[in-house]
């Protein structure tokens, strides 16, 4: 007797993918091929990431060069105000995943959580697009903050649900395809990010904030529509109801979170520096030589100038290029010298982050002296920082997943994202504190970058000491026992 949930050939996805009668499929399809809902998830993710990173790419420039008052006059933010606002927004985006994970596993399930919060997400983009048409009764700054709040609720809330929803689609017969799908999933994130980061700044310059914020909103609406189209092709894992709390917050779950909290706080400093690519590095790029050309290729002459916010596009490009290099070259070479454990990868990545921000500090020192370094110096800083990202960010996700009890994988992944929240909150607070009443800064010029470089170096040293004493339990799906080990 088969364990398949299908009672007739017509109900099997091999012959009819779409379920009849609007019933929801609650267990994985009994197939050896790709689950029928995967194309809808990948398409949704590419469009959603386009909308988010396109909007985020222009935030700092909009706040410092385009923001108006209710009467239509310039109401630009200072550099410190803009940086604080961007990082408070980023912090909110990475706090709400905790709320999304709880709502999903407790009340709505992943599909409905993603769908409902995507509508909130779309509303946030719509609010931002309205800033080009100032309302005398409401200051555009308040409209900006309302739009960002809605995007933080929607975008952050769906974050832990989407990746878990991917895994829900696979059963025993097609589980071997899961890694391939996650590779495409991660590729779609970086592809959408790269394209939107190049395109949206052009929309801002040529057509204004309405189009620059509106096009990402249209892409988010498209992402929501594509996801809705897959409703009858998804596996819908039911929410756990009140049982969710007793199963999740048991002894093993509490112990896992306590074990991982120091790691979360230490890696937060990495995110404090990394996410300044959307704030401090954009402001720095505006003072650099961004011109390329003329470059004669025989059949084509290249002559162009990059916009300050477009530099962020090199990060997803480097991610796509460097992941296979690290997987097949860097890590195997390291393995010949020492055992390459997750905690060691993270530690090395933290020291690499110090090097990346040292480059940006040197660039700023040249600017302070009245020079205009070429933007390729910042591209070099991006290259080094992306190497750190691969060692820290991807490894963090992997490590937190293995350290989480089976019934709370989604929640622990959301817990992992709190590291980004803490890091961005720290950056925002620093930028608020260093503002003087006369508009000057307590950390002017290169001093600002050296401050964060020094904090990162101290954190990396503390991390190395802490990692020697870490004791955790490794939980593997399909294995009911936990492996209590020290992971160096």
Automatic annotation (TrEMBL):
Segments crossing the lipid bilayer: 50-68, 88-107, 114-131, 143-162, 183-204, 210-229, 256-274, 313-331, 343-363, 375-399, 411-434, 446-466
Topology within the bilayer: Multi-pass membrane protein
PROSITE patterns, per the entry: PTR2_1
Gene Ontology biological process terms, A to Z: oligopeptide transport
GO cellular component: membrane
Record keywords: Membrane, Transmembrane, Transmembrane helix
Origin: domain of life: Bacteria
GO molecular function, one term: transmembrane transporter activity
Record localization: Membrane
Chief place where the protein resides: membrane
UniProt entry tagged with the keyword Transmembrane helix: yes
InterPro entries per record: MFS_trans_sf (IPR036259), POT_fam (IPR000109), PTR2_symporter_CS (IPR018456)
Family recorded in the similarity comment: Belongs to the major facilitator superfamily. Proton-dependent oligopeptide transporter (POT/PTR) (TC 2.A.17) family.
The protein's name: POT family MFS transporter
């Amino acid at each position: 007797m088969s364990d398949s949930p299908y009672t007739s050939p017509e109900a099997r996805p091999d012959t009819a993918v779409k379920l009849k009668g609007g019933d929801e499929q609650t267990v994985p399809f009994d197939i050896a091929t790709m689950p029928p809902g995967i194309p809808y998830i990948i398409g949704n993710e590419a469009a959603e990431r386009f909308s988010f990173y396109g909007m985020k790419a222009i935030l700092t420039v909009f706040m410092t060069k385009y923001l108006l008052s209710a009467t239509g006059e310039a109401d630009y933010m200072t550099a410190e105000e803009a940086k604080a606002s961007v990082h408070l927004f980023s912090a909110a985006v990475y706090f709400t995943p905790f709320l999304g994970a709880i709502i999903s596993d407790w009340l709505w399930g992943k599909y409905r959580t993603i769908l409902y919060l995507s509508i909130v997400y779309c509303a946030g983009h719509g609010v931002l697009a309205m800033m080009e048409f100032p309302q005398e009764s409401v200051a555009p700054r308040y409209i900006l903050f309302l739009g960002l709040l809605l995007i933080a609720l929607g975008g952050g809330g769906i974050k832990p649900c989407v990746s878990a929803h991917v895994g829900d689609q696979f059963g025993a017969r097609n589980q071997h395809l899961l890694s391939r799908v996650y590779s495409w999933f991660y590729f779609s994130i970086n592809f959408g990010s790269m394209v939107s980061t190049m395109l949206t700044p052009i929309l801002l310059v040529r057509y204004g904030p309405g189009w620059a914020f509106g096009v990402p909103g249209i892409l988010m609406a498209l992402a929501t529509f594509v996801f809705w189209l897959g409703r009858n092709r998804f596996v819908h894992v039911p929410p756990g109801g009140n049982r969710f709390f007793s199963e999740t917050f048991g002894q093993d779950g509490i112990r896992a979170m306590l074990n991982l909290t120091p790691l979360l706080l230490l890696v937060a400093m990495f995110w404090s520096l990394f996410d300044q690519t959307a704030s401090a590095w954009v402001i720095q790029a505006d003072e650099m030589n961004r011109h390329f050309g003329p470059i004669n290729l025989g059949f084509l002459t290249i002559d162009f100038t990059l916009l300050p916010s477009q530099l962020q596009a090199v990060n997803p490009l480097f991610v796509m290029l460097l992941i296979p290099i690290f997987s097949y070259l860097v890590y195997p070479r390291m393995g010949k010298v020492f055992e390459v454990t997750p905690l060691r990868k993270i530690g090395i990545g933290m020291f690499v982050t110090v090097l990346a921000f040292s480059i940006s500090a040197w660039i700023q020192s040249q600017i302070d002296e009245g020079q205009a370094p070429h933007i390729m110096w910042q591209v070099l800083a991006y290259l080094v920082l992306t190497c750190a990202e691969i060692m820290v960010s991807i490894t963090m996700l992997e490590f937190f997943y293995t350290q989480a009890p089976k019934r709370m994988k989604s929640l622990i992944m959301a817990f992992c994202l709190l590291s980004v929240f803490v890091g961005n909150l720290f950056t925002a607070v620093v930028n608020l504190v260093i503002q003087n009443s006369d508009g000057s800064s307590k950390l002017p010029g290169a001093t600002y970058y050296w401050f964060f470089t020094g904090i990162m170096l101290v954190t990396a040293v503390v991390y190395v000491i802490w990692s020697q004493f870490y004791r955790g339990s490794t939980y593997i799906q399909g294995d009911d026992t936990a492996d209590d080990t020290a992971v160096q």
